[in-house]
Fold each of these.
Amino acid sequence: MNCLIAADAALMYCESNLIYNNSIPNSSGTSAANLYGYINTGSPGNENVYNNTIYNLTVGGSNTSTSSLTVGIRSNAATGTVKNIYNNLIHGLSSVNGSFTTGGTYGIYSSAGASHNIYNNKIYDITNNFANGTAGGCWVSTGSSFMIYNNFISDIKAPNSSHVNGVVGIHSSTTTANSNIGIYYNTIYLTASGGSTFGSSGVSSTGNATSTTANLDLRNNIIINLSTPGSTSGVTTAFRRSTTSLANFSEPSNKNIFLCRRTFCKQTHIL
Amino acid sequence: MLSDYQTRVSPRESNSRSVTVDFVNAAAEIAFDRRSVGDINLVAYPISGITEDIDGDIRNADSLIKERTSQHQ
């Protein structure tokens, strides 16, 4: 279900919309059942999505596709697109399906594009009820430049999930060569719990041995993760990286507030 | 421990902190609680190109977080 589809214009604006109370109440089967508040799969030169309020989007039923996506703002544009996604309020999303790396429940999911500018958004109450589901505030992948700042993200949940990274505030999975990710001034507050191997992250990013691949600059964020890890395994962490290499972790990264309830620096790949 | 992490990633994160931050409406649209207003641990360094907070207020190097608004300075 697509609540609002972007026009495929060179200069695209989507602003000041109210999108709410949409649902797929009885999903079933194993094919993806997707629900988007806003979606763009076109090729605008410039995509501007701002001042929108998106809430109460739900997928119920029994669908079990890991590729299912329930997303407030979904942008999957062309490699040259400049994106500006800002001043949006997104809350009350829930689903029964979807898991990393192809599915899940997210406030904002942005992939492809030359420049992703995601700022001043408030995202909360995002829930994935799937057994191995993932939920997140903001997920980005593929692109050359990411600026993610001034966002408030809280109350992200995956209560039945045993995924090792079932809840994330901000997640970057990009491995694009010569790409930069700036994560600044975000406030993330998580209090999730899940199954026996459940884990969570305030910020999660892809490490790389090449410094210019998804180079991450992390500054001035407040990252509070008071989630409960799984009973048999799983880690609650403020900041998670996928590899031990620090090559693409920018040295100016500094002045963050990190606070976790249980574990911090516990596993090799988790900082 | 934060110190272990700082050692591991040095010279990054040398001025990062692990301190309590208080919020109101923690299960919904969060905002800072007045108990965190004035906490010098929450003062951040300026970043070029980001001159305003989420409320549209100007950032500066000396600003503390604001009461009942929604952005870390």
Amino acid sequence: MNARHPGPTSDRYRLEQMDADADLMVLNFGPQHPSTHGVFRIKLILDGEVVVRAIPYAGYLHRGVEKLLERLTFAQGVPIVDKNDYVAPMTNEQALVMAFEKLLKIEVPRRARWMRTIFAELQRIASHMLWLGTFALDMGGALGGGSGVFIYTFRERDYILDLFEMVTGGRFHYNTHTIGGNRHDIPPGWDREVTKVLDLIESRLPEYEAMSSNNAIFVARTKGVGVIDKELALGLGLTGPILRASGVDFDLRRDAPYHAYDELKVNVATATAGDCQARAQVRVAELRDSIRLVRQGLAGLPEGGINGGKPIKMPQQFKTMTGQAYVGIDTPRGELGTFVVAGGGDKGTAPYRCKIRAPSLHALSALPWILPGHTVSDVVVILGSLDPIMGEVDR
Amino acid sequence: MQGLLRGLVYGGLIITVLMTATAWGMWLERKLAARMQSRIGPNVVGKFGLLQPVADLMKLLQKEEIYPIGADRLLFDLAPFLVTTFAIATAAVVPFSAEAVGADLDVGLLWVLALGGLMVIPVWMAGWASNNKFALIGGMRAVAQSISYGVPLVLTSLVAVVFTGTMSLSGIVKFQIEHGWLALWPPGPGVVAFVLFYMALLAESNRIPFDIPEAESELVAGITTEYTGMKFGLLYVGEYVHTMVGSAIAAVIFLGGWDGPFHIASGLHWMVIKTVALFASVYWVRWSLLRFRSDQLMRLCWLYLVPVSLGLVVFAALWRHFVLR
Amino acid sequence: MGYLLDSIRALGVTAKNIGRKPVTVQFPKVIRERQERYRTSFALLKDEQGEERCVGCLACERICPSQIIHMSSTKKESPVTGKKRGYLDDFTLDMTACIFCELCVQVCPFDAIVMLKVPHEPGYVREDLVLTMAKLYENAEKPLTWGNGTKLMEMQEPPKPAPAQAAAPVPAPAAAPVPAAVPVPAAAPAPAPVPVPASAAAAEPAKTEAP
């Protein structure tokens, strides 16, 4: 790629090119390892404790979601994708449902669009909270200060899940979006609960920051570690907070508005350093901005119907033989794209092909470029800063 | 013959009391950590979960012993016992009160430091014998860390030795009863020496923020990765005993041992209170901070702790020479 | 030095949390109150006359994404109404593969299958996780969740407004989204005194358009 990132295939990292006397060790990092955020394996070639080469292996959590979507009809496919990105499940539904709506040319009512915005931002808060906790866990260990931050953020995230439970009845697998709108309307008094939770989170954010992202030890561990520069980030197709931390001011919510983002003002947080600290800063800033967006969304929530299409009554009710659609939305991890081609199933009742572009997979593809030269301790930090969700990577 | 009997009695007493204290020290830590994290902690076994250590012991005793393929069996078996032995042996010279001391050696402090230094050998044995790369890296880190942090530990103890002019631990306490606690009395340097000693203690007993040998998020469980059952338990207990004895020694050297504040009601209880407070504070720190990276740890030690403790030794010598006479 | 100060701040945070009440819910002893819409296990309902609601129309079997519902039915004369209708011979729902999507509840035209608020009890063998017809009818005694087919449908597709209001041809809610004239501020939740959130709130814009 360039001088700073020679790339995993360049001669510099080819094993036979390495000094024959060099005492290299192969360390299989994962798939069962406390810090790989699921089942993920990196083959690390170490010189002492310094990584010389890193070869990531994904696919341990493959469940064939894309194939399933071809087999199930449009109506049945929506609850399946909840399980992809299991930290922000609603965003999966939204990406899929929006692609289906575009394909089937169904208009979404304004209220449903605003509700989706609120849900998406709440999911972003929940996801970033979980990320902050696990990131601290990577740095402070399960038997240390990291677990403190982890449990604090988990505690507050649970209140957000309670909010979702109030609306949808599910804590994790919601199936609240349907083709054409939403399935569940917001119950009365829900906005008061949301405000309460947001106030709580906002008041406790400084505490987490004192223990993690503003802490000198945190800064020492993250500053200058795992630098992804602008060129590499763009070259690998990184999106979301990772791209923004590398100095690219790009956010789908602002630059290609969907949902109700065209009516709301999104403050896009960016940083230029591209290291783990910058990614952490961007995410914490996004957390704050999301709290603001949810408040704004609740204040402007319009009345009206929540479903512009026909509620699901039978599996074959949506049909189309022609067309294809791509929709990308900005999830907490980056651009989650869904590409659908019509004409599958029984006379077009299912997608012929449904491709999901997972941001985490692209984020992980940066590992071979940025890991060499760092120690084993940094591997954990870098992996944590990329915030990969294995369910989404392997699908 | 009488000396042997006395030794046996004291030895048995120290092992029993120390192991019991450590077991409930673990309970204390778990409760404390739980409350810090908005949890409840052990509360099922016995009242307030007080029997939890017993239940843990029972569980560990029942577990299957597993030897990894290619493990060096002798070293693998020996390491946990040596860790615990060295940790307990240190306690022999700790004066819990004017009378309650196992062996009041003239070079008690030297004994403590020497045994603390020896701890690195069984830890490395455990890391090497496991035939596991994570354990190996953990062992290597442990050696590097123990050797590095041994230096500030010795130097800060030397501050106390220079002040008091004795290496006997009870001698140090008696001096403090006479002149005031070392952590407070030469105002400033005493506190610095205490803080440095405390940090070195955290590093020696592998506690966060200096717990890179274990580093469970990076090295799975470091040297204990391959250990199961009671051998794991012994490694674990060894660390706790080490911390406990370390806290006791910190209390002796810098906090006046069994001397009460303003000499109020001096006695064994003050020593116990100080030790438990220091022990708890180690875990307070443990559950609050993140971890350093190994190279940062080394830099912190050699660039800051060692020079500062050297300066403290010089200061102590000057103070001793010009002020105390 | 920065390390020391920040460490002390972090110590302060943990110390502060010692004072906070533990949030742990000790599950088997304490069961936290579930939300109204919380959904886990399933039940089959009977109507007021004690007759089974399910007629074996296969709607839920067809919609189920995991394909875990299987049923068979025969047509018989009803002892209550005397009309001929379907009766279940067998109905199984395999909880081992259920993804709790609530689609079977939504599609049921007779509100026969509903979900429970209490979780399915864990079992010792796989068969314990397969809900048979007898188990499903027993489950009807347990606390039920809010949703059933009709309510879920109403929430998404509010019923046509009354004839008086519908003097002006109101477009079907399914066809075009109804833009709300004024966004309602969040500070005043549910401004109109509407007890049922879904149907009433959704019917409101139709009123504004009528004149």
